[in-house]
Task: structure prediction
Amino acid sequence: MCGIAGIYSVSAVVPQAALTQLAAALHHRGPDATGYHQTARLGLVHTRLSIIDLAGGNQPLYTRDRQLCVVANGEIYNHIELRATLEARGHVFSTHSDCETILHAYREYGDDFVRHLFGMFAFALYDVSRDRLLLARDRIGIKPLFIKADSAGVVFASEIKALLPAGEPARIEPDALLQYFHSNFISGARTIVAGIEKIWPGELVEVRGGRITARSRYWQLSDVEPLEISYAEAARRFDDLMATVVQQHLRADVPFGVFLSGGVDSSTLVALIRRYSDQPLHTYSVGFPGAAVNNELATARRIAEQFHTQHTELALSERELLAVLPDTIAVSGELMADYANLPTWLLARRASEDVKVVLSGEGGDEVFAGYGRYRAPRIKRLWQALQHPGSGGYRTRGLAKSAPVADLFNGADAERIARAPFMQSWRTANPRWSNLARMQYTDIATWLADDLLVKADRMMMAHGVEGRVPFLDHRVVEFGLALPDRLKVEGRTGKIFLRRWAEQFLPKDHLWSKKKGFTVPVGEWLRGERMAQLGAACRGHAAFQAMRAESLTRLIDRQSRSGDETTFVWALLQYGLWYERFMEGRTGTLHDWVDAAAT
Result:
C-alpha cells in the first residue's frame, strides 16, 4: 500500500520541488521509502508502505529495457498466478513485487491488460516509446485516484489534498456541496473542490502530451447477469471462490490482523482466515461503554475466543472520539461525514502497533443484501417513487429529517442535483435485475465507493496500515449480486445465503440474531448547552454563506430542542471543520468548539 502522484506538463519542465511537495503530502501513505521517475515534462512519485518483497519492491518499477515504468498503490492479489503465465510466455521479472506484473501484463496484452489484474489498485504506467501515460483504478474503487487537468497539463494523486492549489484558496464545487448535504458524501466523478475529479472505479485514462486523450471503463458491475441457482450449487461455487479469494488476500510478508465487529461479515472472515492460515492472528474491536448504543464487545470477544486470536478491545469515551475528529478530517481531504471515521481512526492507530495489514468485512451487507432498507415494504417504495422519482423510491431521503435539501439552498433543481448519482445508478442498472439487485448496485456504486471505502482507506493509511476487504474482491461482488432474491432476503431477514453458508464455521444463534449495526453515539454529544455553543459557532460562519440562514437556524434549533437532526448537524460540523482547514488554512471557531468539547 502506497501513495502515488505525478505531473504531466504540456510544455513546461516539471520541477523536482513540485514532485517533492507531492511526496510530502503523501508521506503518511508510504513512510518506508520514496521514489521518483522524471523526464523533462513528466514526473512520477511513489511513497511506499512495504508489504510484499520488502527488500526489492521499491518503486518506480521498470521493465529491463526501461521502456515501461509504473508507480502503483494497492495489491495485485493474483500476482503469483499471473506471473507464472507471463513467465511461461517469455517475460523476465526483476523483482518479486506483485506490482511488477502490471508492466508485463501491459506488454503482453496491450490495453486489455487491466482485465487480467485482480486486486485493489490505482496506478500510473508510462510507456516511454509511445510517450503515453495510463492511469487506472480497480473495479470497485477500493483504492483512490484523483486527477486535475487544465491548460498547463495533468496532475494526479492518491489523495485530494495533494492537489489543492498552493498559496491560493480552492473553489467549492456547488453541485458537490448539494450532494454532501443530501447524502453526507459526494459521489461520481465530482469532488468538493472544483477542477479536481475522481477517476472512476474500473476506469482507464490515457494521457499524451500532458492532455487527457481517452477515458474508458474496462469493467462495469451492470454487466453482471442474474443467476437462477439452487442454494446447494451456489454454496459449492462459493466454497471454491472464497478459498481462492481469502488465500490471495492473505499474501503478505508482514503480520496481519482483522477488525472484528462481532457481526456476520467480520466473524465469517476470521473463521476463513483460520481455515487457510496458521499464522498468529490479531483481532481488534471497539465499543462505547456507558453510551446508549449497541455495544458488541462481548459478541466479538466470543468469536475471538472461539478462533484463538490475539484480541484487543478498545473501550472508547466521548472525549477520545471527539478529540480525533479534526484529525480524521485532515487525513480524509474529501468531504464525507461518516461517524465511523472516529473509531476506525483509533482502531487503525492501535493496530499499527502490531501489524501492517488489516482485513475487514466491509462490503458484506451490500454484496449479500444485509441492510434493512433492502426489505422496505413495496408500498413505501412506491410512495417514495411518486414523491421523488428517478430511483425507484430508493435513496430519496436527505440528511435533514425536517427539511429537503432544496430548503437549505437556493435553486429549484437542488434536489435533482443532490440525488443525481442515485438516479444515474438506478438508470444504468441491468434491466434484467430485480429491484433488490438495483438497490444493491446503487449502494455499491455510490455509498460504498464514496463513503465506506474512503473511510477505510484514509483512516487506515493515516497510520501506515493497509486495509484489505475480501468481500469486495470483484469476483465476490459479481457472485453476490447475481444471486436470486430468495437467497438474499427472506421475510424480515437479509443476507440469507451468507448466513446459511457460514453455519459451517459459526454458531447459529450468532449468525441468525437480529442485525444491530455499528453506531457511534454522536447524538448523545450534540445536546444541551454544548449544542447551543455549536449553534452559535455555526451561525454567520463563512462555510455556510451559500445556505439559507433561516433554514440553517431552524434545523440547529430543532436539534437543540429534540435531538432529531443529529445526522444533519454532524455533517454541518464536519463541513465547517473541513472548510476552516482546507479553504481558510487555519483552525477556527469550530475547531475551538471541538477542543472545548473534548476536554
About this structure: The mean pLDDT is 93. DSSP finds 23 helices and 19 strands in the chain. Residues 339 and 510 are 25 Å apart (CA to CA). The longest strand covers residues 68-76.
